[in-house]
């Protein structure tokens, strides 16, 4: 309890020292910047593709086709910006990108349908109320469950290959929201059953006693037996990849939202404790790319991990009380203040049009290191929206 008190006190002092800008003003400033940046991002992205990243050293933008797992984040970010600014041009750009993305509702090549279709079409349906978007969401859920393996009670993330036989990655928790939402909005109840089976199996097999998570658990999908536990994007098999911890926190918080089952809330709170009390967490609460990364503090940060964590903590605060509620809210606020500073927010007209700098995609794969990423912007805008709606 003493450690919790001192952590809470230190966060409070860091977040509120020196007469800092009111969060209402900060949120307004950042959404206005986001609108301008995304006008530039639209110009830098071919009309039949989605933005992926920007390389500051070469000043080159990179885009992706719509089957890339991040394809839903750009229209989703545009929709969050529109929700705040009511700018019609921003909405029109989102609609244009939804048109080219819609065909992916039939995609079954991996588990990322939630990222691709719910962050995009789910937000479009929520914000505009246009019933045209719902069948796309429903179809995407039907596509996602084709990857469910009943003998193992999991949704297989990637296809079998030389490295992994039946891989399930911690990120997969995020795609369960698509299934739970569709089931709760007139869809088949089997979607909910599959989502909860996956969540419960992941609780059993993905986590260590300290509530840190492995990145990948490899299954024999015919029997459900765990073959091995490892990583693809973390520093080592036994390390705690920071974005993976963020996905886990977000996932079990979201599961509690849909089910109100106490076990998911308790699990999320334990994951939050691991993150917030981690000795590797920097003072600005923007995590290094792995909590066990070599050469800390002389290594890369991951703004995307901070954005996902902040958004998750703000929701977890809605389900918590007392000191925990204050801890989650104040920790998320500190993350958002850091991300909104010049250290992580790009100057207008720079960064290829992206909002945030200094994310790390997959360092061991030498991919997207210290660059902007679409999902960093998406969850940052979601967190700002949540703070505005729930805490102002």
From TrEMBL:
Superkingdom of the source? Bacteria
Going by the UniProt record, its keywords in alphabetical order are: Hydrolase, Signal
Would you identify the family this protein belongs to, as annotated? Belongs to the glycosyl hydrolase 88 family.
> What is this protein's record name?
Glycoside hydrolase family 88 protein
Q: What is the residue range of the signal peptide feature?
A: 1-17
**Family annotation (InterPro entries):** 6-hairpin_glycosidase_sf, 6hp_glycosidase-like_sf, Glyco_hydro_88, UG_Glycosaminoglycan_Hydrolase
Q: What is this organism's lineage?
A: Bacteria, Pseudomonadati, Bacteroidota, Sphingobacteriia, Sphingobacteriales
Source organism per UniProt: Pedobacter endophyticus
Which GO biological process categories is it annotated with? polysaccharide catabolic process
Catalytic-site annotation from UniProt: 112 (nucleophile), 171 (proton donor)
Q: Which GO terms describe its molecular function?
A: chondroitin hydrolase activity
Q: Which residues bind substrate?
A: 112, 171, 231, 243, 247
């Amino acid at each position: 309890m003493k450690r919790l008190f001192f952590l809470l006190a230190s966060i409070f002092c860091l977040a509120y020292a020196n007469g800092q800008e009111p969060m209402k003003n900060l949120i307004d400033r950042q959404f206005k910047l986001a609108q301008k940046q995304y006008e530039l991002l639209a110009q830098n992205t071919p009309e039949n593709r989605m933005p992926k990243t920007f390389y500051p050293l070469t000043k080159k933008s990179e885009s992706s086709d719509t089957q890339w797992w991040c394809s839903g984040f750009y229209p989703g970010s545009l929709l969050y910006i529109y929700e705040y600014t009511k700018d019609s041009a921003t909405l029109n750009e989102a609609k244009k990108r939804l048109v080219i993305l819609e065909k992916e509702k039939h995609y079954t090549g991996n588990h990322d349908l939630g990222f691709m279709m719910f962050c995009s079409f789910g937000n479009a349906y929520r914000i505009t109320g246009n019933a045209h978007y719902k069948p796309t969401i429903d179809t995407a859920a039907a596509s996602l469950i084709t990857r469910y393996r009943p003998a193992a009670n999991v949704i297989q993330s990637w296809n079998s290959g030389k490295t992994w036989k039946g891989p399930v990655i911690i990120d997969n928790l995020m795609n369960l929201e698509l299934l739970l939402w569709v089931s709760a909005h007139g869809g088949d109840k089997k979607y909910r059953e599959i989502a909860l089976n996956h969540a419960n199996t992941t609780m059993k097999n993905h986590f260590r006693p300290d509530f840190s998570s492995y990145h990948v658990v490899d299954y024999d999908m015919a029997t459900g037996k765990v073959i091995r536990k490892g990583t693809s994007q973390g520093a080592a098999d036994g390390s705690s990849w920071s974005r993976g911890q963020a996905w886990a926190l977000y996932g079990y918080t979201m599961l509690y939202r849909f089910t109100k089952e106490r076990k998911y809330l308790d699990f999320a709170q334990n994951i939050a404790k691991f993150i917030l009390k981690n000795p590797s967490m920097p003072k600005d609460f923007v995590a290094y790319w792995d909590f066990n990364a070599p050469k800390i503090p002389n290594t890369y940060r991951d703004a995307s991990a901070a954005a996902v964590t902040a958004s998750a903590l703000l929701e977890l605060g809605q389900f918590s009380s007392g000191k925990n509620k204050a801890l989650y809210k104040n920790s998320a606020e500190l993350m958002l203040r850091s991300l909104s500073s010049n250290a992580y927010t790009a100057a207008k007209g720079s960064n290829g049009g992206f909002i945030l700098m200094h994310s790390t995609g997959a360092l061991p794969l030498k991919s997207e290191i210290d660059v902007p990423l679409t999902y960093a912007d998406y969850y940052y805008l979601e967190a700002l929206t949540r703070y505005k709606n729930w805490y102002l």
